[in-house]
Amino acid sequence: MMNFFRSAPNSEPSVSGDTPPLSRLEAALFLGREPLPARRLALLAELKDASQVRELVRDLNRRYRAVKSAFCVVEVADGFQLRTYPQFASWLFRLQEVPVEVRLTRTAMETLAIVAYQQPVLRAQIERIRGAACGDILRQLMDQNLIQIVGRLEEPGRPILYGTTKRFLQVFGLTDISALPSYQTEGSEPADPSPSSDEVTRKDP
């Protein structure tokens, strides 16, 4: 467990007058277990706004590269996160202090790709595209927090709609779903459009 020096009782906890903005940002990134949005980082590090956060992130990465640091700040899952470079992975796994690597079968990857590109998507649509049942695979992907239920169709039985999670973005290093690489299947027709927004009842975030 980490120990920190704390301010005296009844004193206002502020560090902005005593520490450089870059140091405050680095400290916030260091403690963040999940990607932190720029506005959240600005609040935590007592910075002016999200624009200053982005400017300081660029500066921090330049400094890391200059000293050949193991660290870099990446923009992923609608936020920023302090990470190590991939070449350190095998060594860090020996310390047993890194998350378990996500391993997916080809079938699971195919199903996950369909969900990612077609979301929000019904199980029936996924099975039509794959040509095979996928109930067990969907449960496995949900257990790994890579997909989630994002709503239901307003029709008899209210079938479930699936979409990807924030962890999916983290695992695949994406800022958001729009960052998915484009694809074109040779000789195929465009996929059926996803259900329109007025047909869907979404879960609250």
What is shown here, in short?
Helix content is 38%, strand content 14%. It has eight helices and six strands.
Derived structural class: alpha+beta
**End-to-end distance, in Å?**
31 Å
Report strand %: 5-15%
How many β-strand stretches?
Answer: 6
Average the pLDDT over all residues and give the rounded result.
80
How many helices does DSSP assign?
A: 8
- CATH level-1 class of the largest domain: Mainly Alpha
What's the helical proportion of residues?
A: 25-40%
What is the total number of structural domains? 2
Major β-sheet annotation: 4 strands, antiparallel
Low-pLDDT segments, ≥5 res: 1-13, 186-205
Tell me the Rg in angstroms: 21 Å
The string of secondary-structure elements, in order, is HHHEEHHEHHEEHE
**Shape, principal axes of CA atoms:** elongated
Under CATH, the topology of the largest domain can be stated as Arc Repressor Mutant, subunit A
Order the strands across the largest sheet as they lie in space.
3-5-4-6
The CATH homologous superfamily of the largest domain is named Winged helix-like DNA-binding domain superfamily/Winged helix DNA-binding domain
Gross CATH architecture of the largest domain = Orthogonal Bundle
